[in-house]
Design goal:
single chain; mainly alpha; 2 domains; elongated
């Protein structure tokens, strides 16, 4: 009797035929739903995307199939052995627009979660650097934190989940507080970072974050004025004036100009 062939742990795993059949069934049902959308649109006189041209029906079938896959495998925990799953897949194909929007939002939320995690990590790096008092370490931490915050803020316009928006605002606020604290050891990097964050926040619809960054710049400038640190005070004032020119939000512009004027008067 021949000995059984050894199993190679590194060999690629094959997908069971039954799973492939179920996947094909879901895609086919979704494509049918997409085709039904096209038929009903033609029948009711509903406008269809003109960008697809003569391929509209086929493209809607493809979109319907994708919507079914998202609906069955991503948005719900469907029983692939039940006929209602394939009916649901066809409905997803027919109602492809809300399904695709929901799937897109899930992807956006995951991206926001990952970016917020990076911001939290960088804030901790600034805290550690501020504790150490090492100026080079503080500058490096500041420079690494700013892109993480601005990337998170740039996602805000595409986020519809209020909780995710709150997370972006809170994490950005934490970063702003640490950047203000780091200004004593790394004034130029901290001021530039706060200015960049404020501009990105204002132009991303996060005016509260932008105003908070301006308040931090104002505090840094006021402290520098009190301590007769003319260079830092001028750096802050110039950053506030540049900020006012680069943002589109009138309330943020006004606040930045007012803070710059106050510093110029001292």
């Amino acid at each position: 009797m021949a000995a059984p062939s050894p199993v190679n742990a590194n060999s690629p795993k094959t997908i069971p035929t039954a799973v492939l059949v179920q996947l094909a069934g879901v895609l086919a049902a979704g494509a049918t739903g997409g085709l039904l959308y096209w038929v009903l649109a033609k029948f009711t006189g509903t406008s269809l995307p003109t960008v697809f041209g003569d391929w509209t029906a086929l493209i809607l079938m493809f979109i319907g199939a994708m919507a079914a896959a998202f609906g069955v495998f991503l948005l719900t925990a469907s029983d692939l052995s039940a006929i209602r799953t394939y009916i649901f897949a066809a409905v997803c194909g027919l109602s492809w627009q809300p399904i695709m929007i929901a799937a897109q939002q899930l992807v956006v939320n995951k991206t926001v979660t990952d970016q917020n995690s990076q911001v939290t990590d960088q804030v901790q790096q600034i805290q550690a650097a501020n504790t150490s008092g090492d100026q080079q370490q503080i500058r490096t931490a500041v420079q690494n934190t700013v892109p993480a915050v601005t990337n998170a803020l740039s996602l805000s316009p595409s986020v519809t989940d209020p909780q995710k928006k709150t997370e972006i605002e809170n994490n950005s606020g934490n970063a702003i507080s640490e950047l203000q604290s780091s200004a004593a050891a790394a004034p130029t990097a901290s001021v530039d970072g706060l200015k960049t964050i404020s501009v990105t926040a204002a132009n991303s619809g996060e005016s509260n974050v932008a105003l908070r960054a301006i308040q931090s710049l104002d505090s840094i400038g006021s402290k520098a004025t009190t301590e007769n640190n003319v260079q830092v005070a001028h750096t802050v004032r110039d950053s506030l004036l540049a900020l006012a020119r680069e943002v589109h939000d009138p309330s943020v512009q006004k606040q930045a100009q007012a803070a710059a004027t106050k510093l110029a008067e001292h």
